[in-house]
Every structure is written in structure tokens, then in C-alpha cells.
Amino acid sequence: MKCYICAQEGKTTEAAGICIVCGMGLCTDHMVRSDVDLWEGGYPFPAQKMKKALPRILCPECHAALQE
Q1: CA 68 to CA 7: how far, in whole Å?
Q2: pLDDT tens-place string over residues 8-22
């Protein structure tokens, strides 16, 4: 698998990870490792935020969206 962002820039770089949100292949230059909050609880709500977050690999776009 190749890095999608590098491919858009005309480069060919092997992917080292996959964004957990959108599934985009990412090289080490474009991946973001971030702690993502976890929620428990099913349908119907209420959902409850868990005490600990888990480290995840994200693309820059999904990382920015989760920070909003």
C-alpha cells in the first residue's frame, strides 16, 4: 500500500500505517499519532466517556476534524 497524500503530490512512498477513521494509507511523514477518546454505552443513549483514551493513527484531515 502506498501513502495516499504522497501519491497526490506525485511521489511514491510506502505506507507505514492506516488512518483508523477513513482508512487512508499513510507514510511516517503524514501520519499523526493521537490519543482518541472512547465512549461506552450502546443504543439507546446515554453514552459515557471512558476515563482513558487510546493512541490511534490518524491522517492530518481526520486528526483536525477530531480536534474541533
Answers
A1: 27
A2: 999 999 999 999 999
Largest CA distance in the chain: 46
**35-47 average pLDDT score:** 82
For residue 56, give the H/E element and its range: strand 54-58
CA 47 to chain centre: 21
Identify the three-state secondary structure at position 62.
helix
Closest among 3, 28, 30 to 14, alpha carbons compared:
3
Task: Give CA–CA dist 40/28, Å, rounded.
Answer: 31
Q: Is the pTM of the predicted complex or chain greater than 0.85? A: no
Calpha distance 18→33 (Å, rounded) = 11
